[in-house]
IMP dehydrogenase
Amino acid sequence: MAFFYEEPSHTFGEYLLIPGYTSADCIPEHVTLRTPVVSYNKKAGEEPALSMNIPMVSAVMQSVSDDKLAIALAKEGGISFIYGSQTIEDQAAMVARVKSYKAGFVTSDSNIRPDQTLEEVVELIKKTGHSTIAVTDDGSARGKLEGIITERDFRIDHVPANSKVSDYMTPFKDLITGKDGISLSDANDLIWTHKVNQLPVIDSNNHLVSLVFRKDFDSHETHPLELLDSNHRYIVGAGINTRDYMKRVPALLDAGVDILCLDSSEGYSEWQARALKDIHEKFGKNVKVGAGNVVDREGFMFLAENGADFVKIGIGGGSICITREQKGIGRGQATATIEVAKARDEYYAKTGIYVPICSDGGIVHDYHITLALAMGADFVMLGRYFARFDESPTNKLIINGNYVKEYWGEGSNRARNWQRYDLGGKSGLSFEEGVDSYVPYAGRLHDNVAMTVSKVVHTMCNCGALSIPELQQKAKLTLVSQVTIDEGSAHDVTVKNTSIHS
Ligand code: IMP
């Protein structure tokens, strides 16, 4: 007979935290969000081979995790998993770009030619969010540098028709430039000495190599949590599937990837067990591979026993996900996280091995992150959250007068990542499990992550916790009624200014 869970499953929005005692020592400055990413023998006093400084990773999705977002997130202390629904070469190239990125040196891939118009500059500024555009002879990233045009060189609201870029740009002869190979601190000295906002770096043929921005140098100085490997390169992850891993994994390892994740909507399968076994046998146990997704104890135990280095939880809770609607499988994300966390602790008690768990999908409000951690997650994976930022790979558009970014599911027709839903056999997936959508544009990743982290840290202090393990031990969680949820927003008043809620 079928098994019935007697209780309904619940999601984050149905829970609240009850504060615990806050001592005078329990202040935001004392809180650490450092968290393990990969399994380790905790009982033997081992340290995990990879940890993060904030408990946030970005989703394995075309519309979320490319090299640009990966760099921005590593600067904040988290990890991106670069999407696997692209060719092996393209994915490896993205990983390589993160690993070869020199903090402070920006490769400008949205340039313009001198004979193009100011209208085209405005379009580019709006599309990319960059206020400085390099002018190269052929408009390419590595073309011959002809000048620089910024939004301060003309009135963006009064663009004269058919004006040429060459008439408004600062021409090459008037630019301060750095030679290829210049150090960041020398570039910064030039910027300050000549009172310029950016320094184009050029090769011996005057071709553009990169740009150094005054603001980026400042920001490099102010990223105390940035996540670096032992060679001072940013840490980056990548998604893989259960079909082409014997080719994809070595290419990603060659490119310098730090961690892999089997990306599937349903991970309690022989395919994942085989992939974990093959990868560890062929490439060694030092190659770290997360697996998932699962939503119960059995699923977790299966993946942990088959060597998963972390386990990802969640089916059907993603914002763009229609899996529950299409197939009727899934579970409330809170219930799934709580059960898998118990299984993780049971496995640890039995083996001494701590296998980190990641709650994936369905994070709508910042406090949902704190709830997921309190329920036992070691970190969370977010798609919609990161899709809203400047650094995500998608276009910024204006819809009904509001800035939005595009965001689509891996199981949508647009992504066509049917491997994520692979059940083996020959027949491909014939229906969608995700939608194509817009999300409100929210600005820079740095500003948003700083705000989110601040909220998590303050709530942890309210619960008397200075670390994630302490939160998991001390948290008191309560299920709440719909009336209590309604009471949680401003009510019975006319709100004047909504910005305080963001
Ligand atoms: P979000 O943070 O709520 O937007 O959820 C992101 C998560 O949704 C991802 O990490 C995936 O686990 C999942 N996901 C991505 N694409 C799809 C899809 O097309 N259908 C169902 N789930 C998806």
Remarks:
- The chain has two domains: 12-103+226-487, 105-217.
- Residues 59, 61, 265, 314, 318-321, 323, 360-363, 381-385, 409-412, 433-434 surround inosinic acid (CB under 6 Å).
- The chain has 15 helices and 24 strands.
